[in-house]
Amino acid sequence: MTAPTQYRGMDRAALDRGYNNTEAVGLARREQYVADWSARSDAFRKAHGGRIDIAYGPGARQRLDVFSAGRPGAPTLVYVHGGYWQTNDKEPYAFLGEGVVPAGFNLAVVEYTLAPAARLDAIVAEVRAAVAWVVEHARELGGDPARVFVSGHSAGGHLTAAAMHDPRVAGGVAISGIYDLEPIRLNYLNDKLRLDPEEAARNSPLFHLPATAGPLVVTVGLGELPELIRQSADYWAAWQARGLRGRYLPVPAHDHFSILEELARPDGKLLAALKDLAG
């Protein structure tokens, strides 16, 4: 099957620009964000402790860290990092516990095998397995298996949407996600992902909505790339048209990276949305 040269009127160069979040924000600024997240995560782990590198499967990266709210039967947030399915680790994202844990949630930060070592089919399966593991072990983690929520950012937003197919998931917050993978297949990101048309289609949440699901908050920063905003708006429209519950929450003034502060801050809009889901 011959790949089309365009997607929504964009050629390869336009698609490369349309999905390059680092270029949009600037490398220096992105590195500042990451350095800040890493320092805050180190401080959070040191101050709070946690159960580190729990295996949810046999693979080297099939592991997660759990930070307890210290209350029996607490709700749990499973967080899935981004990095376009090919970069990043769980360690820089413990800082999200600054908001999530004092709000009364356990926080489980998930890692998964990256491309090109894993195809996207396998990455989706790993994240679904991680979420299932947390649901099945929630009580021993001090949580309530009926109140396990999923969130993730960028590629993690895509993986959050994929995880919503588990009917045991109580709800989700999908942040700046990718829900139609066809433009990814046609741009620079596919050098490592190696998506073919069929794999892109079957892993595109836009075309595989669950029959039933917990409520989902679809959110994106209004300072992000237009394609990221469109993807979120399109996915929310499809989710709503399916009769599924949730809300669309575009957040003004945030770029692709700064939006995570709305989950990390005690007064953050995304943390408030999560609390509403659990309420």
Please tag this protein with its features.
single chain; Rossmann fold; 39% helix; 279 residues; 12 helices; eight-stranded mixed β-sheet; 8 strands; alpha/beta
Topology:
Elements: H1 12-18, H2 21-25, H3 27-48, E1 51-55, E2 63-67, E3 74-80, H4 97-100, E4 106-110, H5 120-136, E5 143-153, H6 155-163, E6 171-175, H7 182-185, H8 190-193, H9 197-202, E7 216-221, H10 226-241, E8 246-251, H11 261-264, H12 269-278
Parallel strand pairs: 3-4, 3-5, 5-6, 6-7, 7-8
Antiparallel strand pairs: 1-2, 2-4
Helix pairs in contact: 5-6
Question: What would you note in describing this structure?
Answer:
- The protein has 279 residues and is of the alpha/beta class.
- The protein has helices at residues 12-18, 21-25, 27-48, 97-100, 120-136, 155-163, 182-185, 190-193, 197-202, 226-241, 261-264, 269-278; strands at residues 51-55, 63-67, 74-80, 106-110, 143-153, 171-175, 216-221, 246-251.
- The protein contains twelve helices and eight strands.
- Strands 1-2-4-3-5-6-7-8 form an eight-stranded mixed beta sheet, with helices on both faces.
- Strand 3, helix 4 (97-100) and strand 4 form a beta-alpha-beta unit.
- The N and C termini lie far apart (48 Å).
